[in-house]
Amino acid sequence: MVRITLLALAVAGSAAAEDAGGIALDLNRLDPVDNACRLTFVADNALVPLTTLALETVLFDHAGRVAALTLFDLGDLPLGSRRVRQFDVAGIACTDIAQVLVNGVASCTGAEPATCAQALRVSGSVAGVEVMQ
């Protein structure tokens, strides 16, 4: 019983350490605007102060085809702060977006791009849209 408890504590501690120091990015909303879809992201940075973070992002339609490939520049992400960023993607209806793939980190100022990529954790709050990396 003591071994199981110690193992559970070790696993919990390891998961907490893995979560600490990360960059959480949540696709929070999709809203139609003019001839575009506005994607709203909420970012929480617990890594280091970042003066820029740009992500190569791919939008897929319901048939699994690439609907758009774009860079989302999240800009300045201070350490320990929450930021909301919006991006309008022209020529695509929000209802056509089925998946959002963060394909990679195009730039990260304040840390190495590889460090930012490893620290990035994506999620989605929009029903029917899968967010992945």
Structural class: alpha/beta
Query: Outline, from the CA principal axes?
Result: globular
Main beta-sheet strand count, sense and barrel state: 4 strands, mixed
CATH hierarchy class name: Mainly Beta
Quickly count the helices.
2
Radius of gyration (CA) equals 17 Å
Distance between the termini: 38 Å
Number of strands: 8
**Which regions are unreliable across 5 or more consecutive residues at pLDDT < 50?**
1-19
- Approximately how much helix is present in the residues? 10-25%
Percentage of residues in DSSP E strands = over 45%
Q: What number is the mean pLDDT?
A: 88
User: How many domains make up the 3D coordinates?
Assistant: 1
Order of helices and strands: HEEEEEEHEE
